[in-house]
Amino acid sequence: MEEQGRQKKKDKKPLSPSSCPINNLDDGCLMHIFNFLSPIPDRYNTALVCHRWCHLACHPRLWLRVEQSAKDLSEPGVFPSIEKAVSAARPGDTILIAAGGRHLASNIQINKPLCLIGGGELPDETTLLCSRGSDSALEFISTCKLANLTVKAELGCCLLHRSGRLTIDSCILQCEENPLDYLSCPIISTAGGNEAVSSSVKTKGDRVSVSQTRIEGGAKAVLTNGDLTLQQVRVIYARTFVYFWFDVDSQ
């Protein structure tokens, strides 16, 4: 009996992607299914299954791509800079920022729900650089998510949160060390303050959620204004880095 069982296992051949029942669905149905997957790692991994899935998983309907080295910028959904990708994005889009090199990001205002994700395996493989003289790399006045990215600011702040729900997951936020580091802060939240924010983008439940993120340099990890305060802080000390989990929410 055992020998027969072993023989049956040997006789079984792995199914090819083309013979799987899911591939009987048309492209529109498959893309609708892929849309429910988290961009990283699930949707990213679907692109490795076969040529058809790669084409559908990378379709601009599912996410936009920022590639500085892209030779053919006429390809739909591919942009040479983060600013152009944000400008072209629709609410709810995901922007995949290619790994390698440094992407300039200075005072880029995001006023619609977006998700920005680094395309590398680790966050330090995709770097957003905010040059000196800029207030921030990214300014958020809508609900957004950042994941798997490194954001560096020479002076000022990495992320400026004005309104909405901002989620920062598995990122690295770095402020350069210099004699004026008391003027710099990785995260600044002015939500709930007295600053005038357009009623079209002002939202209820403004907050910042940070998880598994390295924060380096600056006077404070986060500077708040208005009625938001730092809550539920958790810190893990590694050999060379400190990882933070915390929320910035109303009292």
TrEMBL record:
Q: Where is the F-box domain?
A: 30-66
The source organism is: Salix koriyanagi
In which domain of life is the source organism classified? Eukaryota
Protein's name according to its UniProt entry: SHC SH2-DOMAIN BINDING PROTEIN 1-RELATED
| Gene3D superfamilies xrefs | Ribonuclease Inhibitor
